[in-house]
Amino acid sequence: MRPLRFPRRAHLRASAEFQAVFGGGTRFSGPLFRLQVLPQAVDSLATGEAQARLGMTVSKRVDKRSVGRNRIRRQVREVFRLQRATLPPGDYVFQAKPEAAQVDNPGLRHALLKLLARAATNLKAPDAPGTMPPAAPAGPPPPAA
User: Fold this and answer.
1) Contact 40, 50 (CB under 8 A)
2) Which one, 51, 69, 70, 111, has least CB within 10 Å?
3) Beta-carbon neighbour count of residue 108 at 10 Å?
């Protein structure tokens, strides 16, 4: 599989998936977008199904014309597709703000990249479960003889 593909399983589709991100995700805000991220559980990381998935909302409050809303969606999808391999596994939901309609495509891409970089640095990937048991806590030293 090519690394820059954007398959269907990389999209959030169901309302329940969006609600889970809104209910338990971490929020990052920028001037043009709001990003909610819900890191994936450790059990999905162990099975090898860990990946970054995208959801987005661009309402009519952002732009009344569907052409403008679709332009914003295309930019979000493309930036996420290119950055997906470098992101920590989780569900990412972008919400466009009304200010996004007045910005050109390079400006949108720049704002998205900054927001994704901030999210990636603030979210650390959970430790993978290992085969060794956790180390025993260090107790008091044995008495000297």
Assistant:
1) yes
2) 70
3) 22
Q: DSSP states of 3-41 as a string?
A: TT---GGGB--SHHHHHHHHHHPEEEE-SSEEEEEEEPP
pLDDT per residue over 28-72, tens digit each? Answer: 999 999 999 999 865 454 555 678 999 999 999 999 999 999 999
Cα angle 67, 72, 78 (rounded to 5 degrees) comes to: 120
User: What is the residue type of 130?
Assistant: G
Alpha-helical (H) ranges within the chain are 15-24, 42-46, 66-83, 105-122
φ, ψ (nearest 5 deg) of residue 10:
-90, 5
